[in-house]
Amino acid sequence: MVYWGFEIGDRYRELRDFFLSIAVLGIAFSWRYLIDKLYSYALAVFIAIGIGFLFHELAHRFTARRFGAYSRYRAWYLGLLLALVISIASRGSVVFAAPGDVEVYLPWYSPRADLFISLAGPLANIVIALISTAIYTYTRIDYIYIVGYINTILAFFNLLPIPPLDGYKAIRRNIFLWLVSFLISLALILHYIYH
To answer: Is 14 assigned a catalytic role?
Structure first.
């Protein structure tokens, strides 16, 4: 009975942490558009961040569970507060985001599981970016472009081989898979910069 009570409370907290993180990140990243009263762009950025963040974290979570691990998303409240304060103070020109992460509890250590769990989030962002880029090529809808661009940034940033980012964990397990993922994210970044 206690176990199920813990599970229900844990699920409620995880859901709350997801919604809180999406809300804060959405405001922080769209702040520059909000203060310039470009509400449609602010909404597009908010939605793009929500999609990118949610799928990134859920990919970590579901991959961990496929390997038999217990996993849950935990917000880092101080990181969310810093993201909001820095964005507001810089009028949206600087956003530092460390919203939280998926905590993974493996009953045994597995380098293979560690690799795939680490790569799952950035790969989810790469897939979203590739789909968005393809759709934008045919539709020229600005909002689709924003979704692709933001997911490209999320993938590239998270694949940097700097602790505690996903790229650092992945490069220690398999440098080849990390490099392929990183080069795809770099190609997408360059596409968006020079497009």
So the answer is: no
Catalytic-labelled residue, pool 7, 14, 57, 103: 57
pLDDT in tens, 31-49: 999 999 999 999 999 999 9
Tell me, letter by letter, the H, E, C secondary structure of 9-70: HHHHHHHHHHHHHHHHHHHHHHHHHHHCCCHHHHHHHHHHHHHHHHHHHHHHHHHHHHCCCE
Domain count, the chain: 1
Task: Tell me which residue of 134, 138, 146, 147 sits closest to 54, measured CA to CA.
Answer: 147
Query: What average pLDDT score do residues 121-130 get?
Result: 98
Q: 17-29 as b/e, with b when 16 or more CB fall inside 10 Å?
A: bbeebbebbbbbb
HSE-CB of 66 using CA atoms within 13 angstroms: 12
Q: How far apart are CA 137 and CA 89, in angstroms?
A: 36
What domain range is 129 assigned to?
2-194
Please give the Cα distance from 165 to 131 (Å, whole number): 24
- DSSP letter at 102? E
Considering the chain, what is the average pLDDT of its residues? 92
Put residue 24 in one of left, alpha, beta given phi > 0 → left and psi -120 to 50 → alpha: alpha
